[in-house]
């Protein structure tokens, strides 16, 4: 009668069993373990809850100190009563106009990912002209608006036109409005910012509009 696998296994000593396992089962075992590991990682990656930003600040053409950013983010997360894990604050200084920073910002704005934009005066005027920012009159209540009235920064916005023309008659051709707040005298300068006159604006389509306004108040407290 032909011996079964079990019979062969029972007849082997320890070293023979190990050699038999290596010859016939080790490779397939390793492959299965690797595949299970990959499957588990993919499930964790795609099914885990994604972190939600309660405030996303896009900083243009700047290089902030990493430790100072973390400290500021932590303070803001306490202000908004979030854990910094599933709900967090992001201060992102990876928007450089000499590269593709404006295009990147436009994509983020279309996806309604950005609440606040900080840029120097020249770039800020350009962003206001593109229609990337909201009029502070519309995002602040009367009392808050009056509080920061001396710090407001005015720029020409975007003008919607119905006509078709090869000449750009829209960008920077809109009404001059208070699209920003000069934050050069605020705690933002403690982040290692290289901007002498940073201007802060509320992004068009900001998903956390109220938190963006609270951020302005926080910077001047």
Description:
The chain is α/β, with parallel strands linked by helices. The protein has nine helices and six strands. It has a six-stranded mixed sheet, sandwiched between helices. Helix 4 links the parallel strand 1 and strand 2 (87-95). The protein starts with a helix and ends with a helix.
Short description:
Helix content is 43%, strand content 17%. With 221 residues, the protein is of the alpha/beta class.
N- to C-terminal separation? 90 Å
Q: What average pLDDT do the residues reach? A: 85
Helix/strand structural class = alpha/beta
Unreliable stretches (pLDDT < 50, length at least 5) are: none
Overall helicity: 40-55%
Characterize the largest beta sheet: strand count, sense, and whether it forms a barrel: 6 strands, mixed
Taken as a percent bin, the fraction of beta residues is 15-25%
The number of E-state strands comes to 6
Question: Outline, from the CA principal axes?
Answer: elongated
State the helix count. 9
Order of helices and strands: HHHEHEHEHHHEEEH
Strand order of the largest sheet: 2-1-3-6-5-4
Q: What gyration radius follows from the Cα positions, in whole Å?
A: 28 Å
